[in-house]
Amino acid sequence: DAKTTQPPSMDCAEGRAANLPCNHSTISGNEYVYWYRQIHSQGPQYIIHGLKNNETNEMASLIITEDRKSSTLILPHATLRDTAVYYCITNSGGSNYKLTFGKGTLLTVNP
Amino acid sequence: DTEVTQTPKHLVMGMTNKKSLKCEQHMGHRAMYWYKQKAKKPPELMFVYSYEKLSINESVPSRFSPECPNSSLLNLHLHALQPEDSALYLCASSYSSSNEKLFFGSGTQLSVL
């Protein structure tokens, strides 16, 4: 699976969009990009995933560059409850699927 | 019901004790996972069960013994642990072992004295 690089921390003002970048320059053609987050003292929570096209759900949007070497997770209107560590993970899925977490980005949403 | 329930939430044990962590889900998922998370570190995969059979063991020491009695339950038996085994133990499940969406429990915070 491709190695991912994320900034260790970011700040965002409440109500503004939070844009979290992820670099995965060695991603292969069959690898998906997944995003999870972990709020303090809780288990990780799935947010969104994608392969090539941009994706949107009720939680966030995922923008993947055309060359697939990087992606951005967008929280359109960040709230204080979005303060968490956000993990960008690449994986090709398949049998015996292994979700391997990197260090992630600590997003702090400020009032 | 989209929850993964872990018990107990907190556990303190001595190095000679035997204890078990329990995990339960009723989403019909056929894959279940154990992760270990040290403070300020990302979760690390320990075991994967697929259709009640152990499919991945990430070279975990034998003092950790997983068990999957049925498709809804996952246990982690602990024996002769060391203080460095103190961590948050997370259980997760997914529809299958090739499915990307994992549902995590809130974990058991384990302290080994």
Task: Describe the structure concisely for a colleague.
With 111 residues, chain A is mainly beta. Chain A has no helices and nine strands.
What does this structure look like?
The complex is a heterodimer of chains A (111) and B (113). Chain A has 111 residues and is mainly beta. Helix content of chain A is 0%, strand content 45%. In chain A, β6 and β7 form a beta hairpin. The N and C termini of chain A lie far apart (37 Å). Chain B has 113 residues and is an all-beta fold. Chain B is 0% helix and 57% strand. Chain B has no helices and 11 strands. In chain B, strands 2, 4, 5, 6, 9, 10 and 11 form a 7-stranded mixed β-sheet that branches. A 4-stranded antiparallel β-sheet of chain B has the order 1-3-8-7, with no helix packed on it. The N and C termini of chain B lie far apart (36 Å). Classes of the chains: A mainly beta (111), B mainly beta (113). The A-B interface holds A 32, 34, 36, 38, 41-46, 49, 87, 91, 93-104 and B 4, 31, 33, 42-45, 48, 50, 55-56, 90, 92, 94, 97-107.
Strand percentage of chain A lies at: over 45%
Question: Which consecutive residue ranges of chain B, at least 5 long each, have pLDDT under 50?
Answer: none
Adjacency order of strands in the biggest sheet of chain A: 1-9-8-3-4
Please compute the radius of gyration of chain B using only Cα atoms.
13 Å
**Coarse structural class of chain A:** mainly beta
- Alpha plus pi helix count of chain B: 0
The fraction of residues assigned to DSSP E strands of chain B is over 45%
Q: Indicate the percent of residues in helices of chain A.
A: under 10%
